[in-house]
Amino acid sequence: MTAPGPVLRSLVDPFHPHPYRVVARRRETSDTVTLRLCPATDPYLPGSPGQFMMLTAFGIGEVPISLSRVPDRSGMLEHTIRAVGSVTRHLVALRPGDWVGVRGPFGTGWPLDLARGRDVLLVAGGLGFAPLRSALEAILERRQDYRRVTVLLGARTPSDVLYRQILPRWQRRNDVDLRVTVDRPDERWRGQVGVVPQLVSQVAPSFEPTETVAFICGPDVMMRFTVRELQRHGVSDDRIFLSLERNMQCGVGLCGHCQLGPFFLCKDGPVLPYSRLMPFYEVREL
């Protein structure tokens, strides 16, 4: 008689962090690592591409971190984390065998169902590739469900490009157009130089605007100019989706820290169509 598989269960108390052990650590850049986490008990529902977890550094605090890879039924999580504050610096320093707390999953995911049967454009700047990686891998698992798949990545320098160990695997595929650009090249860089919206202007003419769905994540200014470039090529605002960052703390829309106009991004977002965001996204300091 074979042992039963792990039971996937939803989170009963969204405010209670559950223990996960670090089982692998991969350095991505000088200040960014990817942690692979294993649940101490039965895994929870794994979430969908674009959602996030609240990761707890015990005794220090917690931060929202997007899923960088959708887990399988074993419940393993992967999170790519940049050291930018006290909590993230602690998480980045963890080693296999250390423990973190996990709450979630929270928020909305990338609309993969809407994208089926259409051209898909994934546009990432810097750490924005982390939440888009989960969408890319989900798309590639069901590649036959999508038309043209294009991935545009931007980084400050070649050493800041995420997932350099696995990028070649995607670049070798003949059913994905993956392009990388950097702001400041070094002497070994042979790729494109410039900002991400310039890549959009290169590939957009080959898309059918009414049959294109775009997923965008990255620095605010990069997303604004990417949206304008897509609009210029006829992609409608309700087919342009952004993943937004805010100071999320509760995860369920109670504390108000992540409010953007009428939205609480921890539950209404972080992924939202630009058609809903437009009246508020263009307001400075909102």
Question: How is this fold's topology laid out?
Answer:
Layout: E1 18-29, E2 32-39, E3 52-57, E4 61-66, E5 77-82, H1 86-92, E6 99-106, H2 112-115, E7 119-125, H3 129-141, E8 149-155, H4 167-171, E9 177-182, E10 192-193, H5 196-203, E11 212-217, H6 220-232, E12 240-243, E13 259-260, E14 263-264, E15 271-273, H7 274-281
Parallel strand pairs: 7-8, 7-11, 8-9, 9-10, 11-12
Antiparallel strand pairs: 1-2, 1-6, 2-5, 3-4, 3-6, 12-15, 13-14
Task: Please tell me about this protein's structure.
Strand 13 (259-260) and strand 14 form a beta hairpin. The chain has 286 residues and is of the alpha/beta class. The chain has 2 domains: 18-106, Translation factors (Elongation Factor Tu (Ef-tu), domain 3, Beta Barrel); 112-281, Nucleotide-binding domain of ferredoxin-NADP reductase (FNR) module (Rossmann fold), CATH 3.40.50.80. Helix content is 20%, strand content 30%. It has helices at 86-92, 112-115, 129-141, 167-171, 196-203, 220-232, 274-281, and strands spanning 18-29, 32-39, 52-57, 61-66, 77-82, 99-106, 119-125, 149-155, 177-182, 192-193, 212-217, 240-243, 259-260, 263-264, 271-273. The protein has a 7-stranded mixed β-sheet with strand order 10-9-8-7-11-12-15, with helices on both faces. A 6-stranded antiparallel β-sheet has the order 4-3-6-1-2-5. A two-stranded antiparallel ribbon has the order 13-14. The protein is globular. The protein has 7 helices and 15 strands.
